[in-house]
Task: inverse folding
């Protein structure tokens, strides 16, 4: 995927909203979604914030407002990895070199989950997560 209409000003605006600390590795979370809501979003975010050492910053994309979805690419360029449900931000990650942990809803069938991509370092189903948090 190639995004050829990137706008650095809009990307910088998203980065400022995010409050990214350049001294820390950035773990980006996209846990919201309409078609496949993730029931353990709060618990996963809290667990990552607690368990990751101080060298990491956990960033939830939910409060970040952008004009175009691809304005998130400035954040992705700075990220260490993305943890995402099957949503626009997950698919946008195909436009950059970013390791992805894909969270998938196995219901009503596994077919409803997003496809495995080369950048996906892990693919986890919702029902596998809660017991590990």
Result:
């Amino acid at each position: 995927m190639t995004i050829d209409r990137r706008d650095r000003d809009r990307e910088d605006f998203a980065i400022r909203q995010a409050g990214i600390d350049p001294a820390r590795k950035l773990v980006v979370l996209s846990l919201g979604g309409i078609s496949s809501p993730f029931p353990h979003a709060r618990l996963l975010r809290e667990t990552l914030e607690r368990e990751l050492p101080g060298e990491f910053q956990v960033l939830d994309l939910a409060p970040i407002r952008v004009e175009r979805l691809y304005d998130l690419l400035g954040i992705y360029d700075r990220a260490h990895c993305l943890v995402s449900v099957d949503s626009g931000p997950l698919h946008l990650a195909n436009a950059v070199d970013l390791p992805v942990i894909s969270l998938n809803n196995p219901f009503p069938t596994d077919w409803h989950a997003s496809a495995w991509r080369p950048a996906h370092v892990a693919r986890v189903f919702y029902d596998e997560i809660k017991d590990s948090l």
The radius of gyration is 14 Å. Residues 8-18 form the longest helix (11 residues).
